[in-house]
Amino acid sequence: MEVKLAKTAGFCFGVKRAVETVYEQVEKEKGKKIYTYGPIIHNEEVVKDMQKKGVTVIKTEEELESLESGVVIIRSHGVPKRIYDKLEEKNITCVDATCPFVKKIHNIVKKESEAGSQIVIIGNSTHPEVEGIKGWSTSPVAVIQTVEDVNNFKFDKSKKVCIVSQTTFNYKKFEELVEIISKKRYDISVLNTICNATTERQTEARSIAEGVDAMIVIGDKHSSNTQKLFEICDKVCNNTYYIQTLDDLDLNQLGSAKTVGITAGASTPNNIIEEVQNNVRINF
Ligand code: F3S
Fold it and tell me: Per-residue pLDDT tens for 82-95?
């Protein structure tokens, strides 16, 4: 049997960096209490492992408010500026693991809003990354996700419009929305801040799934990008299986498959991918 493992399976650059930061801090700051502001990634296994090492997840801004000391790690999604200000005020050490691609958006939004532009974020308004981006603007921000949102939004004619995107937004949808806005306004600057990691992972998954007898997609059941990967693979390969860890994999299901493809969502740790890969190889 041949096993094809996707090169883009698992953590993207920003998530890998954030996870490594937590483990580094655990080693470096022994004796200090380590917190992450929100779960560092959407993966129960990883979060549980960090908890075992003494890392606590802060779930709300109120919880952050009640902290007196310790080290707070900012995850790859980033946070609004006021969170850094709060930590500074309280004299709490802040370790920033915001993905540099997200940080770049924060800087654009800060600069452009200070210059008087109307900031438009194309993305999902409830996503933590978008909430973080919003928090770098010095003026109210419009978050647009659908055609309806564009049509309902009243643009201030006296301002220039600066459009940025949530890093994981769909490029086609982004283009479509930008086109509609361009028809309403002339003075817009569009910054495509979509990150390629997701698209590359999806493209590779589809191409592997097309050429194998069975496909395994590994990821947390709550991870939306893993669900998306599963849908993409399932469309082109009838024998596609969604598993969280090796325990969910029934090797009998793979039956007479001669080629098996493996990919994994952005928050699936490498050791889980390796374990699945090795077991498939050993058992066939
Ligand atoms: Fe960063 Fe792109 Fe990942 S923005 S966190 S490398 S999906």
Answer: 999 999 999 999 99
